[in-house]
Every structure is written in structure tokens, then in C-alpha cells.
User: Fold these one by one.
Assistant:
Number 1:
Amino acid sequence: MELWKISQKVSELSDVIPYYFFSLVSSCLSLSTVMVVFSLDTWGMIGIIVNSFYVVIPYLLFAVPVQVLFNKHPGKFSLNYFFLYIFFSLPAVFIYSSVLNSDFSMDILTTKNFYAISLLAALFFWFWDSVFLQKKSSAS
């Protein structure tokens, strides 16, 4: 590959990285806020910040690679993308919950919280992806 093509790819990527960051941070804060509010935790803002640090890891490992793939063919508020985010959030939340609870049993799959958190994680990431990245990608 010629040097100018590599330079062009790096330039295009550097223009989009802040939007990935905004999407990731917004998703983490949104999910953490809902988790703190519905757990009736008294930690408040500190609980949201601490939960965000825990939530960022599954988002980085599962959602961001899918997001990068989706942005090759932008689709703002695409239901197909939403369903795929749900598909990937199920194993992400399972691993996240199993690691935090040190319990790798399948019992977690029988709880309503597992499915609620999976759905909310996908919903928030899909929403913020559509707001920040899909718009940016479709404009380019």
C-alpha cells in the first residue's frame, strides 16, 4: 500500500475517534445511571462513576468492534443493528455478571435483571451510536 493511502486512512480514522469516545462514554454513563437508580443504591454520583468503569470493559470488548463494523455501512437507528447489539450484549452481560459475582453458573440466565441489563446495554449503545457515529458516517 502506498504511503499516501495509509496517511489518508489514518486521517479518516482520527476524525471519527472522538465520536467513538463520545458514544462509549455516553453509553456507560446512561447504563450506570439506570443501574444505580433501579438498584436504589445510595452511592449516587459516585456509584454512577464507579459503575461506568466496570461497564466500559464489556462495551470495549463486545460493542465497539461491532460498532466499527456497522459504521462501514451506516444506518441511523437501524433496527437490524439494534437486534445485533442485543445479540452481542447477552454474552457480554453474562460474562460481566459472572466475573463480578465469581459465579460461572447458568443460574444468571433465569433472572429478569440479566435480560433487562442486556436489553438496556444494547439500547443505550445503539442509541448513542446512532446519534454520534451513524450521522457522522452518513455525512461523509
Number 2:
Amino acid sequence: MIQTLLLDFDGLLADYDHSRHLQHLAAQAGCAPAMVDAALRGEHLERAHARGELDGEALLQALNTRLGSRLSAADWFAARTAASALRRDTLALLRQLRPAVRVAVLTNNGPLSVAAITALLPGIEVLCSATLGVRKPDPRIYLAATARLDGVPARTLFVDHLFRNVQGARSAGLHADTAHHTQSLRRVLRRYRLL
């Protein structure tokens, strides 16, 4: 019997618009979105943040140095929140889960984005690659997440919209499946008798 449900955030519980995130940051920085993108992705600052190599303060300092700006954690929070559209029907489905199932989110993001995701999902624990020290689809992240939740891999179900992440979870001994919208998630949850 499944006791723990681990869910992806972007692409499953919410739609994420990276260009909107860039536009918000660029507006605060007083530059073009392409400049923000070049610093975050082109210079791998965002990936380093998601890996836990740069904390939020270090990421913002590096970004501000490159852009000549004064972006703050509050600016990032506002941009990430504006770029994340919650899938309300999917979240409503989670309220129908059978009692005693522990629900958490597992995301390849750094602390700055996790602060926004946590605010968007009150009551749901959010685990991230930066804190766990490894990214999906590496099997070690699923074991670390399960341990953090005091769970057992064989009694944990992981659901993601990317099959490569599902494969990683299966390699770690978790039950795992893909879902892209509420209907497919409902089918998965019913298959595992969670509804």
C-alpha cells in the first residue's frame, strides 16, 4: 500500500512560463529579458542554484554583478509566482486522496524558487534538488527525498510529466508513473488505490 505520494511541480501541479519569469526579473533589473536569460542559463547560474552550488544570496549577487542591477529575493519570489499558474483542478484532486497518505513535491529548483512554490502550495512540503544535493532523474534524489519524509521506497509513488524522471524513480525502487494533466493523474492515483 502506498503511504507517500511525491509529485513534480512544473508541468504537473502548475504551468510554468519561463519567459514571463524573465520578463518580470528584467523589468526590475532595467534590462532586456534576453540579458537575464543569458546570465541565468548561458552562464549556468540557475543550474548551479538548483544543484545547491549557489545559495539564493550568491545567485542574486552574481546576477546583479552581470546585469548591474539590484534584484532581491523578493523580486525573484514575485517573478516566480507570476510565472507559475496553479492547476486548480489537479490540486482539488489531491484533496480527495485517502487519509494518511503523505504528499510532498519534489522539484529540480533552488531555494529562491522553492520559497515561491511553498507559498503557492500551503500545507504541502516541498523538497528540492538544491537541498538534497542531486537532481532528477538521478536515482539518489528519490532515495534522499523518501528518507527525508521518513518513507519507504517500495511504499512511495512518484509522479512526473517527464518519463526520464519516472525512470530514475523506478531505478531507486519507487513506484512511478507519468501524468500530464488532471485526468491522467486521476488514472494513476486510482490504479494505486489512492482515491
Number 3:
Amino acid sequence: MSLALGAVSGVLLLGGCGLTGSGQGAVSLSVSGGFAGVRHGVEVTSGGDVFLVDGAGDRTRADELTRTEEEKLDGLLDAVDAVDPPSRAVDDRSRDLFEYRLQFDGRTVVTDGSQGLGAVDDLIAHLKEIRSSRL
């Protein structure tokens, strides 16, 4: 996946002081790439509001997090903080993979899923579930 594709995907920055009931800040996931040139994302604000982001970067407010989703998100964010993941884990030789840009707590992690990142992969999967349940 090229750096240019990462730049094209855009950066979804969020502010916030903590997800409801936790010390966590807002989190966002931007997905781009693949054979079809997919671009979309999901943002969760510090208050638990969910926004879907389309390929043009337009945000649409969706249902708030459920309590179960929020608790799982809080736990996954704690797990990611504990492992201190690399900021970039992308196999530049691979083609047609999705690139996942995860932003949280003032940090960005970019991965194409070619390297197992444990808690990061789990957090990405949960954010993808949050998004897909609101489509």
C-alpha cells in the first residue's frame, strides 16, 4: 500500500476528553484501498456519538454506542494502550490490501492487516462492527 493512498484516505481527527464512563478519548477508523478503491470510516466521539464517514469524507450521525459496545471499546482502547503498537505496520510489497488508519488518544496507527497486531486488530474489528451495524 503506498503512502499516497494513505494521504488520499484523509485523516479523521477527533477531540474529546473521554468516552462516557471511562478515561478514553474519541477514536476513529478510516478504511481505504483494496481492488475497488474503497474509502469509508467511522468516528466515535468522547460522548459516545457515532458518525459514519463516506468516500467523499461526509459525516452522517448514527445511533449512539450501546452500553455493550462502549464497554468493549473502552476495554480494547486500554488493551491497545498497554501494548504500545507501532505507528505503521504496512507491507509495502503487498497490493490491493485495505489500509486501516486508526486514531485515538492523539496517536495514529496505520496497518494493512498483513502483520498481526493483536489488540489493534481487535479494536479495528470492533469499530468495523460498530459501523456495519449502522448501515
Number 4:
Amino acid sequence: MSEPAETPQPLQPPQALQAPQYIHGIPVLLCAPDGDPLRGEREALDLIGDAFYLGAAWVVIPAGRFEDAFFRLSTRVAGDIVQKFVNYRLRVAVVGDITRHTADSASLRDFVRESNRGTQLWFVPDIEALSARLGPPPEETREAQDS
């Protein structure tokens, strides 16, 4: 005889999540700097679930949350994590100083430069730099031009 299937539980909000933050009207999930390390796809999927629950378009992750393997491209950890976000059409910003990693790796410097040219993954030094890249929404830009 087989075990009865578990009764589905109602959708519960993820633990310790608050409302999304907004940068120029864009909903973002700001990850806490002291959260669990992002080691791979499993942790990426957890963040993706949180972002979908909150309706976030961007996931902002402090650089310190990534283990060193993320910054060694030969491990493929960065590629695996980023690919999960791409698959779910979520954008990612890695925020913080990563110079200790880029100083030793030309391939990582190239990866960061190419990522920053695109729209899916950005490496920025701080939230202010992210805000500047996201820019004001179109109506704010038009209002400023009309003044």
C-alpha cells in the first residue's frame, strides 16, 4: 500500500522577507549582507522564489554573500548561478568591492566588463551606483527635461 500524498500547504511568505524595495520605481529584492552564502544553484533558486513572491525584477546580492568559488570562473559556479536567473528572467546585481578577486584574474575582469555591458548581470560597487545605472523612470526624465 502506498503512503497518502501530503496535503499541499498554503503558500507561505518566505521567512524574514519584507516588502520589496524600489529603486526608481523598479522592485528589487535587497539581500541582507549577513545571510547564508550563495554556493550554487540551490541557493539561487531560493532567491528566485523569494523574488517571484515579492514581485521583484532585480535581485541585489552583496558580493560578500558569494563564496570564493563564484569568482573563480573555472569552477562554473558563477555560470550556474547566473544561468538560473536568466532562465527565470530575473536580473542580478552583485554589489560590493570585488577587486581582490579581479586583481588576480584577467578572465574575471573580462567577465565583469562584459556583464556590465549587458542587462542581465551587473557588478557595481554600491547601491548608489546601481541606482545611477537603473536611472530614473521615463516620466521623471521627461519632467526634468521639461523644467
